[in-house]
## 1
Amino acid sequence: MSERVIAPKSRGFLFLDSHPGGCRQVVDDMWQAVPAPVAPGGEGPVALVIGSSAGYGLAATIAGLARIGIRGIGVCFEKAPARRTGTAGWYRTAATARLARQHGRDMVFLNGDAFGDAMKEEVADLLAERFGGRLDYLIYSVAAPRRTDPDTGEVYASVLKPVGSSYTTKTLVFDQDGAPEVKEVTTAPAEGDDIEQTVAVMGGTDWERWVTFLADRSLLAEGFTTAALSYIGSPLTAAIYRQGTIGAAKSHLEATARTLDERLGKTLGGRAVTSVNAAAVTQSSTAIPGIALYVGLLRGVLGDGMIAPIGQLVQLWDQLTGARSLDLDDEGRVRLDTWELDPTVQNAVAERWSTATSDSITDLADLGWFSDEVRRLYGFSVPGIDYTAAVETDVSWPAPTA
Ligand SMILES: NC(=O)c1ccc[n+]([C@@H]2O[C@H](COP(=O)([O-])OP(=O)(O)OC[C@H]3O[C@@H](n4cnc5c(N)ncnc54)[C@H](O)[C@@H]3O)[C@@H](O)[C@H]2O)c1
């Protein structure tokens, strides 16, 4: 037992501790935001979500459980409580498992490196032993800085750099007193094998390896469907995102979807797609130069008109399961970002972006919302939580229920 009061301590957008009570409430609130199940009762389809503890993968897990009644496996990479608290994803996973159990859904969570073959073996064994040896859905939502190649042991590192020439962008930071500043930062262009390294981490290689691994073990059901998360984003961030090193990885991911789609279509009557989602405040996205400013301005323009990840993932599940027809763009991608890329919205954001300064930013962007979103990633600024009360931090990883 280890009860204590947890104060938010941060360096930039990174917090050193997370709040178990707040993380649990975030998960509860996401579950509440899901509309009624499509087909209540009965045994749901078997799903594997990779990256299940945060951002879009957490939304995929919760929307899948609450809307579709999935059962299956979530995989993520989180740190247990020790001297510091556990990571927020540790606590969110405990909370998600509790809700799954309450709703009679058999969901097992595994903590470890999804890129390694040991995790693939463990998942394959679990599918065979516990889930009837048939996987219906795989959602791939990993965002990671590094990947170790299981064949060679080589470690690849992903970088966020423009391609061709350096890129100067406005960016949003908060000073020591929390006051917002709009600054310029310059990022040098990719050099050496930066592009290949980033593609090796964030492209489609590991997704394809998962599908091949499970197919070789005959664990994919007829009609097996898989989706990986992608992003296009605004012209304002294109140089650092879609035309940058990470964009090369996303193009690789999308090309992988086309190859996999053909293969799965022929072998199982199955499908592989990418799902292009909208900008959201996550631990990964706040690391991208300019994205904090962009998202804050987007919220300033759209307010509650922004669709949160949980709402987008309900739409994705509805399309994947056939509750709604699968709506693909010319390049075979599900598009859940059309509201973000709407030209009227983009023009309004671009106008605000061009005039944004440290003095005007509070009027142009919704900074209260943005700061709270960042804090909520760690379980802080969650309505209904008493942050002066001591809370148990020693939460154990959810054991599979019998
Ligand atoms: N955040 C956005 O604005 C946005 C928009 C559109 C698409 N996407 C895409 O969604 C996907 C997920 O991004 P996010 O922003 O939700 O990220 P995130 O940082 O919120 O979550 C990443 C998840 O990956 C897991 N993970 C990281 N390394 C792992 C490893 N080695 N093994 C197992 N699990 C690991 C983490 O535990 C976590 O569950 C990415 O493909 C991203 O490009 C993000």
Note: The longest helix spans residues 245-268.
## 2
Amino acid sequence: MNPAPPARLLVVDDEPDLRTLYELTLLREGYEIDSAGSVADALEQLQARSYSAVITDMKLPDGSGLDVLRWLEQAGRPEKAIVITAFGSAENAVEALKAGAFDYLTKPVDLRQFRLVVGSALGRQPAARAPDPVAPPPRESSVSATALRLVGESHAIRAVRALVDKVGRSMAPVLVQGESGTGKELVARAIHDHGARAGQRFVAVNCGAIPENLLEAEFFGYRKGAFTGANEDREGFFQAADGGTLFLDEIGDLPLAMQSKLLRVIQERSVRPVGATAESPVNVRIVSATHKDLAAEVAAGRFRQDLFYRLNVIQIRVPPLRERLEDLGLISARLLARIAQDAGVSPTPRLTPAALQTLSRYAFPGNVRELENLLHRALALAGGEWIDADDLGLPDDLFDEGRSESQFGALETPVAAAPVAEGLSLPEQLPSDLARYLDEVERAILLRALEQHRFNRTAAAASLGLSLRQIRYRMARLAISAGDS
Ligand SMILES: Nc1ncnc2c1ncn2[C@@H]1O[C@H](COP(=O)(O)OP(=O)(O)OP(=O)(O)O)[C@@H](O)[C@H]1O
């Protein structure tokens, strides 16, 4: 069998010394190289033949690297483009990524990084890493691969799918915005699955759920003896996601001090574990998500502008379910199939037209996750092949089609009879779904505390012996929104 021919690359730079340096570095990696000193020269060569990748300086005598990128984009060419920008010109890097560059490098180019970036553009992974027995496990999901698809035919969800398809191919950081439960993590996974990193790890981290004093160790890892209890070396999320994608959920909850450290790692592309003396390179694609308006957080001084700028190169907004109610039927069918399969129920129950109509009159403050919970319960209640409106358990008085979304949306979420808070009183009939029952108890307690403290989360948290971070996390989990007190 003949080995695959070596990849051919085009290097575009007007400085002969730098061109030679890049050429030598790449030749040593076994690639074949052509070079060009100007935009015109580059386009001429690109018209004559195709390449696996194009590496171009931003500043060229007769134009800019962006001209080469735009030409590639317009001609529908498959070449991956890597742009080299001047040191400190973040604008250029962002512009290049938006114009479709696979990745960028800043001058002076670190040759080790140069090799890594070119390798990852060509789908080559760095040398296999020894598995780390104590690496933090990625958040596991019981969702099967087929169920991980973003279901829906509404204009809004098609637009999201088209963007996912497009950005999957580059390294550009993506910020996914949307209310809780809209499917942000699903979007992040889809981006990962559409790109060259699909075979690598997808590590999901809920930034709001990690105690502040552990953030650095969790993100960057630590060395044995770095602090009390550090009995062995341990990798952090960045090392665990090396070669793959790191999904930073609820990025808006990251404290300012940690934001600075994260920015540094993103810029330098290397991490230093707590207690280590040296940094090691990491090759990670960052996808972050938030339900907050991050631009407003920046304006309020709670989020670093430079980090926002770095993470927000490409933005995907996942619309709330109430803005795409036409997808209810498809999404419900997909969710029911998954729930029935997990519960071993066959055939999969279906919604009657009346049930679907009832659902479409509900605002779903908790979005798809709330729909999923509701269908879970409905399936248990219905017990047959059809799920009717009555099985949904949505009280009639919730339906007011003209109402605007309440600031306290979750108050309108169906809550089972609130448990008695004084003392411990067990329900007469034991719950059939303990996890859901306990969620409802927790929701009722949180709402009562929030009401008592006029929705001031700090005060409500204190009254329950929780920190602000803890109550925020619990509220997000239970889809309780109560403004930004
Ligand atoms: N379009 C969709 N089709 C099918 N299932 C979906 C869709 N969107 C979301 N889901 C399901 O809804 C649930 C919630 O989605 P996901 O966890 O991605 O939301 P999220 O926005 O990340 O939530 P949070 O903000 O609370 O972290 C998951 O079980 C997911 O599989």
Note: Residues 143, 150-152, 178, 180-186, 249, 291, 331, 334, 368-369, 372, 476 surround adenosine-5'-triphosphate (CB under 6 Å).
